[in-house]
Amino acid sequence: MEAMEAIDERKDILAAYKKLFDCGFVIGTWGNISVRYKESFVLTPSKMDSDTMQPEDLVLVGMDGHKTWGERNPSSEKEVHRQIYEKRPDVGAIIHCHSVYATAVSAAGVDIPPIVEEVSQLVGDGICCTKEYVRAGEHEKLGKQAADFIYGNMAVLLKNHGPVCCGKDIAEAFLCCQVVEKAAQMFLALTPGLGAGRIPDDDVQLEHYRYRYTYGKEI
Questions:
Q1: Could you give the angle at the alpha carbon of 102 between the alpha carbons of 199 and 134, nearest 5°?
Q2: Which long-range contacts (CB under 8 A, 24 or more apart) does 185-189 make?
Q3: Residue 202 CB neighbour total at 10 angstroms
Q4: How far apart are CA 1 and CA 147, in angstroms?
Q5: DSSP string, the chain
Q6: Residue ranges per domain, the chain?
Q7: pLDDT score at 192
Q8: Top-level CATH class of 7-213?
Q9: What is the pLDDT of residue 219?
């Protein structure tokens, strides 16, 4: 990959990442964005926030999952992006965020039906939630869950984790994040008392250890 190749895509990703923070859809480094590029995809790096990330920090990942350009490690959730791209040639950009209401619905482990026209028009037949919690570090399993449960729609909820939103380009993927968050807020208002499923104790301990000692160092 030449130094200036995919520069527009990288700039678009950085602008969208900043907007995610401004909207409160992401805090810290919990979120990632990618754009399909030729036979690969440009992806945000692991453990970097929007204040410090520069275009050269983004990485290029092949559809085989291997990094082909960049100095930094790709997001640990690259498999979510790769497996959706592999399954869905109509998807040109993917945003994974942790917006409050959509993540709350994911903690309840339920699907959001198409209750407003924005969902049916942009997302499709509702927003499905994966049925099994996948702990941090089980990257391939997480990617398979995302690809399996997105079906023909443009968004999916990862159980106890958050939404993954897609689009033909990054602008549409960001709009999808907004539509999913609005639908989740309305759904929670209309369906009180859902309750939340707890992350298993063993997974909590493993994830806390991973965050403190290995997150951002994984290849």
A1: 30
A2: 185/101, 186/115, 186/116, 187/105, 187/112, 187/113, 187/115, 188/101, 188/104, 188/105
A3: 9
A4: 27
A5: --TTTTHHHHHHHHHHHHHHHHTTS--TT--EEEEEETTEEEEPBTT--TTT--GGG-EEEETTS-EEE-SSPBPTTHHHHHHHHHH-TT--EEEE---HHHHHHHHHT--B---SHHIIIII-S-BEE-SS---TT-HHHHHHHHHHHHTTSSEEEETTTEEEEEESSHHHHHHHHHHHHHHHHHHHHHSTT---PPPPHHHHHHHHHHHHHTTTT--
A6: 7-213
A7: 87
A8: alpha beta
A9: 59
Looking up tokens 């380009």, which residue turns up?
A: 169
- How far, in Å, are 9, 69, 87, 100 from residue 169 at the CA level? 10, 21, 16, 24
| List 2, 5, 39, 77, catalytic entry | 77
- Given this model, what pLDDT does residue 2 score? 47
- Is the entire prediction scored with pTM above 0.90? yes
Q: What angle do helix axes 100-108 and 170-190 make, rounded to 10 degrees?
A: 60
Q: How many CB atoms lie within 10 A of CB 18?
A: 15
Active-site annotation holds for 118: no
Nearest residue to 139 (alpha-carbon basis) of 211, 80, 66, 216: 80
If we measure between CA atoms, which residue out of 11, 37, 127, 12 comes closest to residue 91? Answer: 37
Instruction: Give the mean pLDDT per block of 10 residues along the chain (219 residues).
Output: 70 95 92 96 91 92 93 94 98 98 98 97 97 93 98 98 98 98 97 87 88 77
